[in-house]
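Query structure, 151 tokens:
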């Protein structure tokens, strides 16, 4: 087995295990490679300074990362979640516009009908979120890796 570092068009990074480099190319050409976060088939191989080849079964999972959850890559955050939850999170990403740090401003514009109603996602500080709630603007918090990493 050979392991490649991969990324989708939204820069969600993950790894893929293949029988050979030719098998990777075959699957990529047929659109069989999909991002585990957003499910896009627009996946590319990333340059890597190291080559990882497995001569047997996949190694046991590594110990949990000491990084805070919000700093871990999206694919690590998705690991271990039930398939139904992953599917729903992917649907949120597909069906919403990522407005990034402009979330509080855009949410207000929509709420006060200064902007067309639409589904958005993005980031807000705890203080900004509290201010939105105080204004009666309803929203739901997403896991940080969806709001920050998704495009």
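Result returned for the query:
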């Amino acid at each position: 087995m050979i392991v490649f570092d991969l990324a989708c068009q939204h820069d969600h990074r993950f790894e893929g295990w293949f029988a050979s480099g030719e098998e990777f190319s075959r699957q990529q050409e047929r659109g069989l490679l999909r991002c585990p976060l957003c499910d896009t088939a627009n996946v590319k191989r990333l340059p890597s300074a190291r080559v990882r080849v497995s001569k047997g079964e996949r190694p046991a999972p590594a110990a949990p990362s000491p990084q805070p959850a919000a700093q871990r890559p999206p694919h690590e955050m998705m690991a271990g979640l039930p398939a139904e939850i992953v599917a729903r999170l992917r649907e949120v990403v597909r069906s919403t516009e990522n407005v990034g740090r402009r979330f509080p401003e855009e949410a207000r514009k929509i709420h006060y009908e200064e902007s067309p109603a639409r589904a958005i996602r993005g980031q807000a500080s705890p203080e900004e979120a509290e201010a939105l709630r105080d204004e009666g603007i309803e929203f739901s918090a997403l896991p940080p890796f969806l709001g920050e990493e998704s495009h």
